[in-house]
Amino acid sequence: MIGSSSMSFFHNISKNNDELSFIISNVHTSIVNSVRRILLSEIETYAFNEINIIKNTSILHDEFIKHRISLIPLNCDDNIEIELKVQNNDPDILDVTSNDIKIVQESMINDRRAEEQTTLGLPFVRDILLIRLKNGEELSFTAKTKLDIGQTHAKYQPVSIVAFKILKSVIHLNEKFLGYMDKIPSTMELENSNIIGFLDITDHSLDYNSEGDIEDFYFKKNLVYKFKMESLCQHPEDLFLKALLKLKSKLKNILQKKNYNIVENVHIKDCINVTLSNEKYTIGNILEYSLNLHENVDFIYYKSGHPFDDFIKLSVKLKKSEDDFINCLIDSIGYLIRIIDEMIENWIKIFPDIKITQEQEEIDFLNS
Q1: Of 107, 128, 218, which is closest to residue 173 (Cα–Cα)?
Q2: Predicted TM-score (pTM) of this structure
Q3: pLDDT at residue 210, as a whole number
Q4: What is the pLDDT of residue 209?
Q5: In whole angstroms, what is the distance from residue 257 CA to residue 259 CA?
Q6: 210: part of which helix (H) or strand (E)?
Q7: How many CA atoms lie within 13 Å of 257's alpha carbon, on the beta-carbon side?
C-alpha cells in the first residue's frame, strides 16, 4: 500500500506488480471516463505486426498462430525483429513458448520493467505458450513489431483491465448516527454534511484520520470513484500519466488545429451546430460537461452518428445572441486543462520516479 495522497484527487493508492487501484475524488465522471477510454484505445504500444510463417506442419493453421504471436505483451521502446524455428524430434509433446523466440534485431528495452518481466534481456514476457507440437511437427516464423494504438487493433492495448465504479451512498460512521443505522436503508441519500458521497460502507480500503473518522475528502463531493487498472508489461502509473497527458493534448489540439465547423441552427434561436472532426465520445462527454458550466451557455448536447464516422455534432444554445461560442469554447477547454494539469501534478508527486519520455513537453507547467 502506497501512502495516501494529501492532494485532492487521488487517495488510497495500492499497487501490486501490474495492478493499480485507487480512489478518485473531486472530478467529474466525464473526465474519469475519458481517461479510461484513452487507456484502452489511444496509448501507443508496440506489438508484433509483420508475421511471416515460413513453415508450419502443426495442427493449427497459420492465421491462428499469427494471432497468438501478435498478442504477446511487449516491453520495448523501439522496433524489434524476432525469429523462431522449432522441430519436435521426440516422441513426447513439445510445448513451444515465448522462451524459444530469438531476437534478430536488438531494441531498446524498457529499463524499469526489464528485470521484472524478462530474462536474458528479452523484451517480452516469458513462458507464454504458443503451440504444442507432436513428434515430427515443425514451426518456424519471423516477425517485426509496429507502434500503434488500441483503436487499430486490440493487440496494441497496453492494459488488460481498466474500469471504475461510482461508490454507493452510505452514512458517515459517526456516533451520532450509529443508533439509526438499522433504520435507514444503505441506498438512501440524505442531505446532511455527515453523508458520504457515493461510498460503500463495506469498503475497508478507506482513509481514516487519527480519530478513526473517514477523511474529509469523501464529504461534500458529488461523486467518489474507485479506479482499477491492470497493465501489460508496463508500469500502470506510467500509463495513467500518459493518459492524462494525452487527454490534455487532445483538448489543446481542438484550439490549435481548429478542426471544427460552426453553422447556425435555423430552428432554434441563438443556437448553433458545431461539427468536431477526428473526435468521438472521449472528447464529447467532457466538452458537454464543461460547456454546460459556462455562464453564457443555456444548454448543450452532442451526438455521434455511425460508429465509423470520425466526428461528433454539438448543438449549443447561447443565452444571448451576442455571445461568442469560440470564447465559450476557449474558456471551457481552459477550465478542463487546468483540472488535468492539477491531476498530473498530483500524480507526479505521488510517483516521483515515474518515467516520462516523449510527453515531457506536455508538462512544462511543472518547470514554470
Answers
A1: 218
A2: 0.79
A3: 60
A4: 58
A5: 5
A6: none
A7: 12
